[in-house]
Amino acid sequence: MERTIYIPNMADHAYPLSAALRSCGIPAEALPESDDQTLLLGRKYSTGRECFPFIVTTGDFLRKIEEPGFDPDKAAFFMPLASGPCRFGQYSHIHRVFLDRLGHKQVAVISPTSANSYADIGGASLKLRIRAWQALVATDILQKLLHETRPYEVNQGDTDRVYKKALAKLTEAVEKGKNLVRLMKQIAEEFKQIKIDRRERKPIIGIVGEIFMRNNRFSNDNVIRRVEALGGEAWLAPISEWIYYTTQRYKEDSAAERKYRDLLKAILQEKVQRYYEHRLEKPVKKLLLNNEEPRTTEVLQYSAPYMHFSFGGEAILTIGKAVDYIRKGASGIINVMPFSCMPGTVVAIVSKRFREDFNGIPWLNASYDGQEDASMLVRLEAFMHQARQYRDKRRFG
Ligand code: SF4
């Protein structure tokens, strides 16, 4: 029986990603953005010990189930698995238990795993994997354009309007299997038309941390807009970073286990990923300061003084990406994490030494749990003040 795959709306990438599935004949839909109802349902059915992203995704699944006309026999929720030193590897199993307990046994949970760099997505169809990759990378690029343009727009709302239009065009183009390079050229032209005033570059803030929280604006209380409202420019670590990392791990693990077929697959996969990323970013490169992503091996080298490479997962990427952003000119780093997140807490501990190594760069460990937190705004204001000072010191010595 053909099921519709529902993709959690962690970020805007959910729209082009679901379009990639549809383009290969797989019914798919991005779930709507999370809201208060999400939290209500997620909290109602969880024990309170789960990670916050789990509560949000559970709430979104249940909200969908409660919709009139929802057919459990024709539905599947998408919840990728990841190995690493935390609870993420358990999400899809616990979702299964929850759904069963609540009487939704017919609803499927689809869980490709990071252990083979998500090779089993869509039955490992190469066409789908390439389209899904392009969809993710192109959305990362659109977000870079958004975040580097919006803080300088002369007419408020122009950038959001162009971005939304671009995202819709991208989703349509992915679904129809159109040439995305041509589309990126068009999108670059549209962003160029936005009237901006960039006589003075605002302090750049690197947004790093747990992948769900840093991307999900509902869960992180719209941290990027808050930074912008306080006079900053926020750079968000891209989702492709995680996919490259899983490819790297796939390569290393295959080599260690002498699985040479898998090793070859991983090497080819990385080459294909780089090829498409390069083609898609070329048309917009001149518009961006943050226009080149470091290789995973570079990121791992950056984090090596702070964490052993065997400490797999997001902590190592968070530290490495923070170094990359500082090298590119960031004047502050926000480590976005769910309350009680294990890798996030490790990063928070390491951040003290990290700051000392980078001339006391402002660093904010921002943990969220869905509760309103007035103190966060005060901390953000103080952080932005320090970031401005750091930028000036950097500029004028
Ligand atoms: S990264 Fe943090 S929030 Fe995400 S599953 Fe692991 S412990 Fe939970």
Keywords, separated by commas or semicolons:
alpha/beta, four-stranded parallel beta sheet, Rossmann fold, binds iron/sulfur cluster, single chain, 8 strands, 397 residues, 9% strand, globular, 15 helices
Secondary-structure blueprint of this entry?
Blueprint: E1 4-7, H1 14-23, E2 28-30, H2 36-44, H3 52-65, E3 75-78, H4 91-101, E4 108-110, H5 126-149, H6 158-175, H7 180-192, E5 204-209, H8 211-215, H9 223-229, E6 233-236, H10 240-256, H11 260-281, H12 296-303, H13 314-327, E7 332-338, H14 342-357, E8 363-368, H15 374-396
Helix pairs in contact: 1-5, 1-6, 2-3, 5-6, 5-7, 5-11, 6-7, 10-11, 12-13, 13-14
The structure holds iron/sulfur cluster.
Average pLDDT works out at: 93
The unreliable regions are: none
Number of distinct beta strands: 8
Structural class: alpha/beta
Q: Report how far the terminal alpha carbons are from each other.
A: 66 Å
Task: Characterize the overall form.
Answer: globular
The first-level CATH class of the domain at 201-238 and 293-396 is given as Alpha Beta
CATH architecture of the domain at 201-238 and 293-396: 3-Layer(aba) Sandwich
Q: How much helix is in the residues?
A: 40-55%
What letter string, H or E per element, gives the SSE order?
EHEHHEHEHHHEHHEHHHHEHEH
Each distinct ligand: iron/sulfur cluster
Radius of gyration: 21 Å
> Major sheet: order of its strands?
2-1-3-4
